[in-house]
Design brief:
single chain, Rossmann fold, 5-stranded parallel beta sheet, two-stranded antiparallel sheet, about 10% strand
Length: about 475
């Protein structure tokens, strides 16, 4: 669509002013879409269907979205003054605004992950070899897909057939064996570094929300304890800023997801102090009071390794001044590759949807937090992990896949039937303009409707899913101590 543009210049990161070029915006949007297979990955007939109908091609869709960005930039009067043009970061913010406003959620995520990965490259945190692009690791995903094809569970239809034929138990056993072997490999890497002379004093288990960090942390440390290592675990939730420093948004929600929700300066100071043999006054945070209420003295013994289970363990400011040779970083993300239906659409189900279902179940069963609010909050989760978690995953010493082909059948019984935890469509009436939540809800509902699940009795029993499986953190019945479930 023809739009009037009065912006002449754009400010680069070095503050130099250069000519404003809408074509570069269009190219960046198109590249993001192409990295996930094209805009069809975001086709939603009731939301952006008319854009596809009018555009007719990915190039034309990108042209339309670039025009929207130009309109957004021109709506700020300050940008029309030649000496006060929009900065590059402002342009990128508006690209994400435009993409999400028209339902191009997957393209926006790919754009955001690539954007922040480039940021960490410029900062010198990442090298080209550790850059993860749009966040979808091609080699790892192809390996997972090949395994799933071999076991007949690469599509929802194939997975349903496994469940209907009563063959889920061997699939559970074999997929868990792959996960356990990955942890064995991680432990060997840790011991190899120690034996080679690295003085590791700090170990991180990091990854996006509901990837299975708690179970993985326990299993990983058990392996290392058998090798004679000792650990001191520290809860970083105590470093949250007080509730009054987390203002609510328009739906009375607070954003605890980004790393800046933590007192990074104090945390870094304490980590450096512990590694230097000092005794720290660690804060004690009371979540009911919404503030720190006391402190506790903590000291790391000379034969101990500091163990930290944290979303943001790869975030550079947290470990500033601590050499990488003193750290071992394990990264976990749920990345089971599963295609919709019989696979004919060539559209994958979403890793994030499985994690969202896990978190919804954990929140409602163990935190008395309605699943509706979990869905409404999820855009904060994604924003945080696309900035400081997923783009930095290349820094990890080892990556574990915490996603399993049996996750959806195990989760399904809790989101179906008369006692379903899934919100009802009318629950979203008050949030009619909240497109992100609407897209996620409708996609979740469609996915769950397409999956053949276990019964609640089967999910509760250990006959199919053992008590130490990652999914037990969320469906219950874990034989591993899960602090956030107590």
């Amino acid at each position: 669509m023809p739009v009037q543009n009065q912006i002449v210049k754009v400010q680069k990161r070095n503050r130099a002013l250069v000519k404003f070029d809408e074509g570069r915006i269009q190219q960046a949007i198109l590249r993001a879409a192409e990295s996930i297979g094209g805009f069809r990955a975001d086709f939603l007939p009731d939301i952006n269907g008319r854009i596809f109908q009018a555009a007719g091609s990915d190039l034309k869709v990108a042209e339309f979205l670039a025009d929207v960005v130009v309109v957004l930039l021109n709506s700020e009067p300050r940008h029309l003054i030649s000496n006060f043009p929009p900065a590059i970061e402002t342009v990128q913010d508006e690209v994400l605004h435009a993409l999400r406003s028209y339902g191009f959620q997957n393209t926006a995520d790919a754009y955001a992950c690539y954007r922040w990965g480039r940021h960490w490259l410029r900062e010198g945190t990442l090298t080209r070899e550790k850059f993860v692009g749009n966040g979808f690791p091609k080699a790892a995903m192809e390996k997972t897909l090949a395994w799933n094809k071999q076991h007949g569970c690469d599509t929802v239809a194939g997975l349903n057939e496994v469940v209907l034929r009563g063959k889920l138990k061997p699939l559970v056993e074999e997929s868990l064996a792959v996960y356990e072997a990955s942890l064995d490999e991680a432990a060997k890497k840790m011991m190899a570094r120690l034996n080679a002379g690295d003085k590791i004093r700090m170990m991180w288990v990091s990854g996006p929300s509901s990837s299975g960090k708690t179970t993985t942390t326990v299993k990983f440390t058990e392996r290392l304890q058998k090798e004679g290592l000792r650990f001191l675990m520290m809860n970083l939730d105590d470093y949250f800023f007080s509730l009054v420093e987390h203002p609510t948004d328009w739906i009375n929600d607070r954003n605890y997801e980004p790393p800046e929700a933590l007192d990074i300066q104090l945390l870094n100071q304490h980590l450096v102090g512990l590694l230097n043999g000092e005794t720290i006054e660690k804060p004690v945070y009371d979540f009911k009071a919404g503030r720190r209420v006391s402190t506790k003295q903590v000291k790391l013994a000379s034969n101990e390794i500091l163990l930290l289970d944290c979303l943001h363990g790869l975030y550079p400011p947290i470990t500033e001044g601590i050499d990488a040779s003193r750290q071992f970083r394990l990264y976990i993300e749920a990345q089971n590759v599963l295609f919709e239906g019989d696979g004919s659409t060539n559209r994958r189900t979403h890793f994030t949807d499985v994690r969202l279902l896990r978190r919804m179940l954990r929140d409602v069963r163990h935190r008395n937090h309605p699943t509706l609010l979990t869905i409404l909050h999820w855009h904060y989760v994604r924003s945080g992990e696309l900035f400081s978690i997923i783009p930095l995953s290349g820094l990890a010493d080892h990556v574990v896949n915490g996603g399993f082909p049996f996750d959806l059948p195990a989760l399904k019984p809790f989101f179906s039937g008369p006692e379903s935890y899934l919100p009802k469509p009318e629950d979203f009436a008050t949030y009619g303009g909240f497109l992100d939540a609407r897209i996620r809800y409708e996609r979740l509902k469609g996915l769950l409707d397409s999956v053949k699940g276990l019964t609640k009795e089967q999910a509760a029993s250990y006959d199919i899913i053992p008590g130490d499986a990652v999914v037990r953190e969320f469906i219950g019945g874990s034989t591993i101590k899960i602090p956030h479930n107590e």
